[in-house]
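Field reference: sequence -> structure
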Amino acid sequence: MRLAVVFLTLFNPYCASHWVYETRTMTAAGAFDCLHDIVVRKLAHSLFEPNTRIHTVRFCRQSTLNPPSQQKNNITHGTPITFHRLRSSNITAEQLFSWNAPMDIIEDYQAGVEVGLFVNCSQDDRYWFGPNCEYTFDSSSYFPDIVDGQFDTKEGVPNDLLTTDNSVCLETGEVECQSVLCLDWREICDGKIDCMNGADEEYCHRLEMNECNPSTEYRCLNGQCIDKLLYWDSYPDCMDFTDEIVIHNNFCFQNFDLRCQDKLCPSTWFSCGDGDCHYAPTINSPESSCKSHRDLLYYKQTLPSTIILFSHIFITYHNLTPISICFNKTLCPYLSNDETMTTTDENDLSCRAFDTFRRNATYIDFSSMIRDLKRLVLSCSLLPRNDIMDNCTLFQCNDGSKCLSKHRLADGENDCSDGEDEHQSNTCDLNHQYRFKCDNHMKCIHPSLIRNYEDDCGDGSDEEYSHASLCSDAMTEECYAHRRQTHQFNMTFSQLCNHIVERIPDANNDTDESNCPMSQWNCFTHYTICNEVWNCPDGRDELNCQWSLLSLRYCDSVSHFCLNIRDGNQTCLSKQQAGDGVVDCVGSTDEREYCRVHYPYEFKRRYRCQNSTKCILISEICDCHQDCPCNDDETIACHWLNNGKETNCDPHRFRCRNGEYSSTVTFRSRCVDNLSACSDKENALFCDLNDRSTSRPFQTNDIPEVPKSKINQLTRSSTKENDLIHWYCNRGIYVYSPSSPLGFYCMCTESYYGHRCQFQRKRIALILQLQTTSSFNAVLSSFKVVLLLVRNHTSNTIVSHDQLV
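Structure field:
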């Protein structure tokens, strides 16, 4: 098989309507009456860098019946019109399209089919659609808003509705499983046994042993390989999301987000069945329980006061005090090292009293108890495989229970029961090119831990605020270096001759500032005004800009905020004194040329030490550590912290001039987290010493969102029937129909099937990323992408096709 991709550039605006496909015959997957649409979404700032993704979405009904039988429904909400009458009225296919006619009808009509029937639904005020006008959302809203509205109303679904649901399942076919719950696809090769016989973890060691081509690929933590160009691009391409910053926020239950459909859980974590994950199944904990209630379903399958872990370990407890642990000694030999402490129960399981493990016997809540118990029995999360363990060429846990890829060392997750995989001292010697080297040079951590709001390095260097925007412009030298890419000499027009060197020399030693005399290239342009960078030597392009908090607060529109070089007191410097070759301000904030010339590609190394040739980073100013020879970065730059008598410096908190400590910012994050943390804005000092412009090349995140039609909000009733409709279709949506005994049908995405979208489908997901290397300043184009799946062994037969617009 091969995949052919054809790109066509169009100028059609996105449309908020939806059309029905596959109304005459079912697809090979058993789907019919499908809705196709395009969803343009801004990614949430709290989880990923701001970006936009365009998804094609297809929701279909699923049935074992042949769709033509559906055509026998009575037409009650539309007007039937024959093809002959349409042609006699000179109706065009474009008009049928504007009336939301099914695409099959439009194609037949356009192809000249003589006998056909179109049922016009467009005149009804309840927005009916379908081949016989049998469906309605009872809303004129933009289709993605309808989907979002249905998912929003899932919050607070009553627990007793679980009796109507068996959770979403992956059918295992002829493979025997005997799991506590029917399997979620994420539970296959997830590092823990979910089937009693371990069938869900069979052959998974091959992924653990897999290595990728380091010259062209990035290895995800689970062993998947992706193109290295997709690493750190603000969108997760690894199924476990480890090519990006990993923050374990659960956002899937109430969000229709296609990222959730292919999202894996971290190794040994519990899957909520919708893309959300928790460390272990728990109950009665809003922070660590599944909103889908799959963990509650899990415990409903067990005996009272009993916890089942990894399908074969049974733990009894009373009032948050564990009593005993029973296990199959063949499956879990690591808990029976001392035979004198082991007894046998009526099910022929080996049992030990909990106090023989010398652990804390009481816990403050159920969540903390289950977390500790899981850590205790972690050695038994996988079946013992002697054929592999005896010849382990990877990293072996001290008790011999697991043979782990060395990529899992220092990855933030304890895979061994004693956590020795997280306390190795040789992780910098592993020759893993993407690992992040901590400032102490003693530890190299997995790159997914960078900027995850946890100090994994121990010195805070992995949480440095500059990492957050490292690849917001994918064509910067810092991003090339971080992604281990060879340099590509690309630039946008706004970067050309803007008086800031942003591209390293090419083969001819030319940069983006070569052959740019000041007399011909104005520093004061549409591209440079208020772009947060001094493009003019005197900084006049950044005067009176909203982002310059200190200048706006203390100075007029023709002067810059400045700390006097002599005493560190604040003053205002006229633009005539800026860029005149005389240093008047602390850090040479008025004379920026020196650090630019000597450190052209370190855009945040712009503070020049007093009476020195040294330039330091913004994050090194006022950080309770001397970085300049004269210590002016501490004693003068922030003299209220170091007044010569007693230091008020706290390396973990930023102290404002009024003596109060900010609870929202630290020294490392003060320029990004909250610039208004201090009443006098002193936490924003020197944050403008940055030569990275806010202008960006055109990418898909520059495409404007589709204008939305007026939204008819979906109101939620408190009746159980209305609660049922929100819950009933799982990860699908419901559409009202009088032909259904329930009054509605479920429509599923291609990842699910069944009349309730209750079964997960085996599938291949295709993600295309479009990037351009130049700016589109005129009319924004849209793109048509034609996809052809071709069987190429002899006939070059197209076995499947689709198009994205």
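Note: The longest strand covers residues 31-42.
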